[in-house]
Inverse folding.
C-alpha cells in the first residue's frame, strides 16, 4: 500500500473517465469548496491511497448508494461529497492505459492511485460503514482507508 500526502491550495484540472474508457474534461473546484472540515490555514490535504480496483469498486458502490438514497431525501452534502470521491476514482481509472474489462474498469487486481481530500476519505469511510457487509473486500477497504488516515 502506497500512501502519499500532499497539500494543495488550488483546484485540480485535467480529464476524467466518463465511462468505458472515454475521457471528458473536468474541473474539481466544487470539490475544494464542499462544506466539510478544513485545516485552519486554509490548505487542503490530499491523501493518495493505492487500492486494487476490486476494493475501489466497493468504495464507489457505497458512495453511489448513498448518493442515490440521499438525492431522494434532499441531502445535497452527500451529492457534493459523493461527486468529489467518485471523480477522484474516475481520474485514477482514466490514467490506466492497459486492457479494460467489458464495463470499462481495469482488471480487479490492478492498483489505482486515488487522490481525494482527507475529508472526502473520511466521508467515504462513513459510507462504507453505512452500507457495511461482513465480506472480506469491504473489511479490507475499510482497514486500508483507516490506516491511510492514521498515517497521513
Amino acid at each position: 500500500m502506497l500512501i502519499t500526502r500532499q497539500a494543495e491550495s488550488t483546484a485540480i484540472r485535467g480529464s476524467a473517465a466518463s465511462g468505458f474508457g472515454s475521457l471528458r474534461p473536468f474541473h474539481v473546484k466544487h470539490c475544494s469548496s464542499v462544506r466539510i472540515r478544513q485545516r485552519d490555514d486554509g490548505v487542503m490535504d490530499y491523501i493518495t491511497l493505492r487500492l486494487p480496483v476490486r476494493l475501489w469498486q466497493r468504495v464507489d458502490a457505497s458512495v453511489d448508494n448513498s448518493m442515490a438514497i440521499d438525492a431522494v431525501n434532499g441531502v445535497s452534502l452527500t451529492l457534493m461529497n459523493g461527486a468529489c470521491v467518485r471523480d477522484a476514482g474516475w481520474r485514477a481509472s482514466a490514467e490506466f492505459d492497459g486492457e479494460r474489462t467489458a464495463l470499462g474498469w481495469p482488471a480487479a487486481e490492478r492498483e489505482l492511485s486515488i487522490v481525494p481530500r482527507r475529508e472526502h476519505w473520511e466521508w467515504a469511510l462513513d459510507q462504507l460503514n453505512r452500507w457495511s457487509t461482513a465480506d472480506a473486500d469491504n473489511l479490507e477497504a475499510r482497514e486500508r482507508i483507516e490506516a491511510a488516515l492514521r498515517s497521513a
